[in-house]
């Protein structure tokens, strides 16, 4: 059994618009379903600690119906895990075998956290698995290796694409283009030919998924890597 640290946002709204945001619930539930079924233990941490905001769009009926998320949303014990999370600044890479960064637009406003960047650098330096999905790779942008280079420099990654951002009608309110920022830090960014289809990229211990449809795939890749 491995121990996996899951990171979620503490940001519940956009900086320039009145939209509510937060964790995309399916990107958590799809991942935990796979890795916990495989026998691994998960701990959820958020940037600020405490209660985790949930993106209301991730609770829409058609979204909840996909991949078992509705069952998790109805599960009081499961949802209570989001009521009092530990803060990122209070956890250590020494205690876990892998880290997973969930998405939801909230991460674009608080995943630039210094404690998170250090945590990811520590996981990477120890050769442990670093994984992320959708907007989650925003948390990789500030992490550096001991030589000063970005952790993602020279590595294959993916993340929420700009065409998908435009389709989601959030292009005018997000603070940056995630795919461009990843590439600007030396990563080899790729995306699927079609929008909102599973696309998972593995580069040794770095595993990333493009969109919510990729959370199951990222989880399977993490389980394979842990094996």
From TrEMBL:
GO cellular component terms, A-Z: cytoplasm
One example of a Gene Ontology biological process annotation: proteolysis
DJ-1/PfpI domain: residues covered: 27-224
Keyword Protease annotated: yes
Pfam families given in the database record: DJ-1_PfpI (PF01965)
Keyword Protease in record: yes
GO MF annotation, one: glyoxalase III activity
Keywords: Hydrolase, Lyase, Protease, Stress response
Family classification: Belongs to the peptidase C56 family. HSP31-like subfamily.
Name of the protein this chain belongs to: Putative intracellular protease/amidase
Species whose genome carries this gene: Naumannella cuiyingiana
Phylogenetic lineage: Bacteria, Bacillati, Actinomycetota, Actinomycetes, Propionibacteriales
């Amino acid at each position: 059994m491995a121990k996996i640290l899951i990171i979620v946002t503490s940001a519940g709204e956009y900086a320039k618009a009145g939209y509510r945001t937060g964790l995309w619930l399916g990107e958590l539930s799809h991942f935990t379903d796979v890795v916990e079924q495989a026998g691994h233990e998960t701990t959820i941490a958020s940037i600020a600690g405490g209660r985790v905001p949930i993106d209301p769009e991730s609770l829409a009926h058609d979204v909840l119906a996909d991949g078992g998320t509705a069952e998790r949303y109805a599960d009081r014990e499961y949802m209570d895990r989001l009521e009092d999370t530990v803060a990122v600044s209070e956890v250590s890479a020494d205690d876990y075998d892998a880290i997973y960064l969930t998405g939801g637009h909230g991460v674009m406003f608080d995943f630039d956290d210094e404690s998170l960047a250090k945590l990811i650098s520590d996981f990477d330096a120890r050769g442990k698995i670093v994984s992320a999905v959708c907007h989650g790779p925003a948390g990789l942008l500030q992490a550096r290796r001991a030589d000063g280079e970005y952790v993602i420099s020279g590595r294959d990654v993916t993340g929420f694409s700009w065409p998908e951002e435009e389709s989601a009608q959030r292009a005018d309110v997000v603070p940056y283009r995630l795919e461009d920022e990843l590439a600007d830090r030396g990563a080899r960014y790729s995306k699927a030919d079609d929008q909102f289809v599973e696309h998972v990229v593995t580069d040794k211990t770095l595993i990333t998924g493009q969109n919510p449809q990729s959370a199951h795939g990222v989880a399977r890749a993490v389980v394979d890597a842990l094996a």
